């Protein structure tokens, strides 16, 4: 009688290891605090006391001109309110400390596709961290606010709410946007850097009127009913278009200050975003 040859021990161990690997869930990519992509870099701060497993609401916050993502993590107007409300805070770096939103000086010459970069950041964060898909928020200040408007108009998929501050469209403004969104814009009535009525910069770049820009979002959201007004804590006077046939909501909140951020204003914006949960 012919005996069958036994497979080598190494082959048996390898087969067992492969079988075990096939039955285990795929591991998330290694987490990072200062993360590097082919297109650029971003920085991450998890809320204190997080257990390392529970899904987190995500805030991606875009810095203004001349700043960095690391500056936003260290800013008292951004980091503490995000941490207190349990957000995973992600702060990408603009190329050359700027964002190439349509019509801005950074978009006039060779530049990075910042919409593609921010979509890559979102995808990478979701790969590394347990993000709650029902609460993904994008916000930004000044030029970062303009880039937030750009994303809200042209690439809103998968983002629950947009929280731009002190920055909107530049000319030429879009005639319409991709889909209805939930957007809350915060602005200072006395802002000299980005006035509510817009201004000309370097004789060829034009910041658009904030009210005209919000009208584009209201048209996309199909907001036809009269807005409601409310005065929130922290001196904010808000006008909200909530009865929108497209399912979105648009809000304009004004404060009496200038070109600035405050922790209580950011906290109020984040609480508003949490109410937009899908």
In words, what does this structure look like?
- It is a single chain.
- The chain has 278 residues and is an alpha/beta fold.
- The protein has one domain (30-274): Alpha/Beta hydrolase fold, catalytic domain (Rossmann fold, 3-Layer(aba) Sandwich), CATH 3.40.50.
- Helices cover 28% and strands 24% of the residues.
- The chain has helices at residues 9-23, 69-74, 79-84, 114-128, 143-154, 210-221, 263-274, and strands spanning 34-36, 41-45, 56-62, 88-92, 131-141, 161-165, 182-188, 199-201, 205-207, 228-232, 236-241, 249-255.
- The protein has a ten-stranded mixed β-sheet, sandwiched between helices. Strands 8-9 form a two-stranded antiparallel ribbon.
- The longest helix has 15 residues, at 9-23.
- The protein is globular.
- It starts with 8 loop residues before the first helix and ends with a helix.
- Mean pLDDT is 91; it is low at 1-7 and 10-27.
